[in-house]
Every structure is written in C-alpha cells, then in structure tokens.
Amino acid sequence: MAILIDSDTRVLVQGMTGRAGTFYTDLAMRYGTECVAGVRPGKGGSTHVGLPVFNTVAEARSDTGANASLIMVPPHRAADAMIEAIEAGIGVIVCVTERVPVMDMLRVKAALDGSESVLVGPNSQGVLSPGLCKIGVMATRDAAPGAVGIVSRSASLTSEVVAQTSALGLGQSTTVGIGGDPVHGLGFAQTLELFRTDDDTRAVVMIGEIGGTEEEEAAAYLSKTDYGKPVIALVVGRHAPAERRMGHAGTLAMMGARSAAQKAQGLADAGAIITEDADAVAPAVQKALRGG
Amino acid sequence: MYIPEYHAKEILAQYGVTIPDGGVARTVAEAEDRARALKAERFAVKAQILAGGRGAAGGVVMAPTPSAVGEAAGRLLGSRLVTAQTDAEGEVVERIYVEAAIETAHSLYLAFVIDPTGARPMLLGSARGGVEFEAEAQADPSILETLHLAHDGAIDEAALGGFLERLGVPEAARAAVHALIAATVRAALRNDALFVEINPLVITPAHDAVAVDAKMILDDNALFRHPEFETTAREAVRDDYERIARENDLNFVRLEGNIGVVVNGAGLGLATNDMIADAGGRPANFMDIRTTATSFQIARGVELLLSDPGIKVLLVNVHGGGMTVCDTVAEALNFAYSRSDRRVPVVFRAAGQNADWARSIMKDRRLPHENATSMRAAVTRAVAIASGKGA
C-alpha cells in the first residue's frame, strides 16, 4: 500500500518547464509515475514533455485531477509556489528546492495550518514508493518494492540504505526525505505514525543527524506509542565539530538541541534499535525482522 | 552569516534601538580620538571578532580616560582572541569598538530566535543578563523566559506585558523596554535575521533601555533580497579554503586531520567522518558536493585538498543519483590530478548511478587509487594508509 503516494497518485509539477523540472519530470514518467500537468505562469495552454501546461495550480488541478505536486522552482519563488498548492487543495506537496529563506517558511507553515495538505520539504529529495510512484530527485536504480519504510533528513544516506536493503532482498515500502531545513513540513514523528498504520511496512529506518529537535520529537512519539514494528535509527554527526563559530550553539542548547550521541540515546531509550554506522543499517533491519 | 557587535548595533539603531554612543577604530590613534569625541566619564573598549564569549576571554576592557582607551586598544589590536566560541587558534582582532560606558541598574538578556517546531519567531529573555548568562541558563533553564510571536512577527501586547513582568522589568522602565523589543523584532524581520541577541540589555538608573552588546545572525539563504549585505557576507568567510569551496558549490569545513574526504551529500559526509573517527583516523575536512556542482567545481575542491601538505590520502565516497553521478566525481579527480604534482593515493568507493563508469575512468586515467566496495572497507583502508601502514 505504501504511504503518501501510490499508483493512484496524479502528479503536477510546478516549475516543470525549467531545466531541472524538465529533466526530473521526464525521469519520473519513465519510472512510471503518472504525471498529468505542469504549472508555469505565463505558459498556460502550451505543452511540455507531452504534458499540458497551466498558469495556475488551481486550473491544473480542476482540469486534470492532480492530487500531488512536485515543486521545482527557484528559492525566491518557492514559498509562493507551496502556498499556491496548499490553497488549491493539493493533498501531497513535495518541495525539493534548496535554500528557501526561513522567514518564507514561516508564511508557508501558517498557510499549512488547518489545511488538508501534507508538505514534504523543502530541501528534500522527495518521496518514492518503489514500483508505484516517484515524486522527487532521488536515484531509483537500486530501489525495489518491499517491506522497509525509510524516513530521512539526508538524501545521500537514503540512497545508501535503499541500495543496502535491496541487496538483502528486503526492498522498501516508501522512502521519505523530510529535508534538511530547520523549518519544514512533515517531520519524523508524523512520518513514523504513517508507517505504523501501513500494512506493507514491516520495519522503519530513521536517519537523523546533528542539529534541530526532530530526533527528540521522534523519541517522544515512540516512547508514548505502542509502535509494533522495529524502528532502526542512525544518527550521524557524532564526531562533527560543535557548531561554535556561529556563536549561538549555547542558545540552541537552551532551546533543546542535543548532540548526535544524545539524540541516539534518546531514541534508544524510546525503544529504537541504534546502529553505529551506515553499513550496519540493513543488517540490523534484517536481524530485527527475523527476530520478530 | 554572523554580524559582529558594531554592525549589529548599527542595524538595530536604524530601527530605533538605543545603543551607547561609540564607534569603530582600527588603530590606537583612532581609538583615542573616538574616546575624546565621546566626552564620557568611562569607556568600554571591545574587540570585534566573528564570535561571542569575548567578555569572559578579556576581549572587553573598561577604561577611565581616552589615553587608557589607547592603551587598551594597543593591547587588543593585532592580538589573537580565543573565546569559548572560537577555535583553539582564536581570531585576530582587526577592529575594536570604543563606546561610552553605561550606568547599570538592571542587566537583562534578550534574544529573537525562530522556533522551528512551532514555525514562529520567539523571544527569549532573562532577568539575569551578562557574560555568565549562557552557563547559568544551561545549569538552570528556569531563569529563561519565552514569548512566542505570531508567524509574521506580530506581538500580542498583553502577552508582552506578562513577559516583561516575568523579567522583573521595573514599572518605570516598561515603556522603554517595550519599545526596544518592538524595534528589535522589526529589525530582525526586515533583515531576515535568524538570531538577534542583546546581552546585556541594560536598564539605566534613569529607566532607559540600552543595547550594550548585540550580535545577529542573518539567513544566508535570504541574501538574494539583501544586496546591501554582500560585502559583509564575503568578509564573514575568513578561511580561504571555505570561501573557494563555497564559490564552487561545495560545502566544506576544514578540520585538523590527514585524510582528505570527497563526499556528495551532507548526511553521507557526516556518516563518513563518523566512521573515520570510529576507526581511529582523523578527517582533514568535511565535504558535501552540492547536486548542482560540475566536475570542474568538484576539481577545485580536490585541488584544495591536494594543496594541503598534511594530507596523506584521499577518501572518495560517492553515492551517485539525481544529478551528481559518480563519473562526474571521477572526472573531477582526473582533472585535479592532471594539474598537480602530488600523487596522493586515493581510496575510491562509488555506488549508485554510473559507479562502473567512474571506476573505469579512475583506471583508464591511471590515477593512483584502489577501489573499495563498502564504506567501511574504504574507511579502513584510508585510515591504514594515513597512519603509514598502507603498503
């Protein structure tokens, strides 16, 4: 069944006519994703990579029945694009744009409040339900349909774990990149909850890193939930130098940010299986699934 | 982007925050002239570096007369200041700030931050401002008060009243502190600040509110709408390696080890360095090749590593996918090595998109390398070579 996106997902691409938009829309369609429209203000009525182009998300949605959006617009336009998709009632919005200003994300989050939309990103590699649907910029070569849900703050480590779990014959139900930015949409805890109720997902891999409080929130969620599936966590950055130069490390600590080792300990206390390094993740999943 | 005191105070003053009279000096003579022009009873002489923690490290000196200001300036200018927020080498003091010392009745702490979970700006405050505040707040978080703002920074007046009360602001100074907070929030929002700290926020015996020390961090990602900060942004990157890397779409942090790392992706970069440290090795850098980097840009990053005589081995760990494919990185290595006399051995680990092609480039161009299949195998080999046990 997968989470967030599956074979019923109909994708529109905001910023489809740009270089990256063209490239990734083409790749997604070759992968079998049902792309139905592109949005580019001023180019409505034209056709690009075989798809109709609309001026607005609302028009694209009502004409094509799109229920998900991939946003690939430049950083200064990203917030408006996300808000437009939210206001048009798009169900799943994936923003891969990097370097979106934080203040802009505060506006986006206010628009998201009380809406029906789920936002993934920005600065996310996207969401992939192998064999069903791809919305994003991730590699698909090593992905295979299967039992492992992956939620991650890192695109490159996700690729790594995808390749490892496929090599062991486990495959993936869905991979979700929550993105590397401080203010973003879907978080670890919410994604874990989606995986919990997904029948296809038998184990979840969570890839965290230093900075922010996502891992702490995930630990709080796990400790109050009877999760019922193994959660395997990797938190990287244990040996990264402390962020001293920026001068607000102390303030971040006051606001609850912890070191990678403390984050891992918190997750272990909440019942997650901690792996020491990236190569150990897939074997740990295999062991947990065999052990029941 | 870190905005040092003198610059942060200028910005805050533009929005109506009261700051002590003062100015920047780069020489002893300039410092003395500044002091004479101030006509104050006492002076503060403050080192301007791109880090905090100066008070506890001797970077802030009180002086009774303009000539004493000159003496203090002579000691500070050109010296290296090591604080809790710099690295072990510290930073050279190139500028000082000379200002009139302020009579203090109360010292508060005030900060504007973004609460990432609530996705709203937030004020932090404390009645216990001063140099010891950070340490005290970590030992006893209850001395810290918080006030959430609306997502657009709007302040709820009633809530702000309660906040000021919790900070112990005397009735007679309420209006002044209120105005200072409103001006600070305005300055933060207009300049895309992720962090503004005023410590101490001094309440004078005459019930004025003065920002005696301030620093700001601006959002690098919002620079496109702040061309006025372009020069500041260039000056904020002090390390030449990091500056060149940034210009070439690489995130690069210099570390102190002897294993140069070339990795795509921040997470994979952190994971690689963790693994090196666990295996007893020391990475010379952290690298994250951004997805938009070309082989020529990546080559500049490799050249930076080759130019460091302390580096004994390069560890390349690339997971190809999206736009960065493995052969792009192999081409970059080839290009950098063709322009360098050094034949630093490479441990090459490629996975994902075009990994085979990348390995064939490494082989065909006769780069001094060995292939590794897993991350752990690559790290083990690199650590062995770096410690002289490679052959």
Automatic annotation (TrEMBL), chain A:
SUPFAM superfamilies: NAD(P)-binding Rossmann-fold domains, Succinyl-CoA synthetase domains
E.C. numbers: 6.2.1.5
InterPro entries named in the record: Cit_synth/succinyl-CoA_lig_AS (IPR017440), CoA-bd (IPR003781), CoA_lig_alpha (IPR005810), NAD(P)-bd_dom_sf (IPR036291), SUCC_ACL_C (IPR005811), Succinyl-CoA_synth-like (IPR016102)
UniProt GO cellular component terms: succinate-CoA ligase complex (ADP-forming)
Catalytic residues as annotated in Swiss-Prot or TrEMBL: 248 (tele-phosphohistidine intermediate)
Gene Ontology process terms (BP): tricarboxylic acid cycle
Keywords: Ligase, Nucleotide-binding, Tricarboxylic acid cycle
One GO molecular-function entry: succinate-CoA ligase (ADP-forming) activity
Domain CoA-binding: 4-100
Assigned protein family: Belongs to the succinate/malate CoA ligase alpha subunit family.
NCBIfam families attached to this UniProt entry: PRK05678.1
Record's protein name: Succinate--CoA ligase subunit alpha
Organism: Rhabdonatronobacter sediminivivens
Lineage, broadest ranks: Bacteria, Pseudomonadati, Pseudomonadota, Alphaproteobacteria, Rhodobacterales
TrEMBL record, chain B:
Domain ATP-grasp fold succinyl-CoA synthetase-type: 3-203
Alphabetized GO MF terms: ATP binding; metal ion binding; succinate-CoA ligase (ADP-forming) activity
UniProt keyword terms in alphabetical order: Ligase, Magnesium, Metal-binding, Nucleotide-binding, Tricarboxylic acid cycle
InterPro entries: ATP-grasp_succ-CoA_synth-type, ATP_grasp_subdomain_1, SUCC_ACL_C, Succ_CoA_ligase-like_bsu, Succinyl-CoA_synth-like
BP terms from Gene Ontology: succinyl-CoA metabolic process; tricarboxylic acid cycle
Gene Ontology CC terms: cytosol; succinate-CoA ligase complex
Signal peptide: none
Residue ranges of domain ATP-citrate synthase/succinyl-CoA ligase C-terminal in the record: 262-364
Xref: PANTHER family: SUCCINATE--COA LIGASE [GDP-FORMING] SUBUNIT BETA, MITOCHONDRIAL, SUCCINYL-COA SYNTHETASE BETA CHAIN
UniProt protein name: Acetate--CoA ligase family protein
Organism: Rhabdonatronobacter sediminivivens
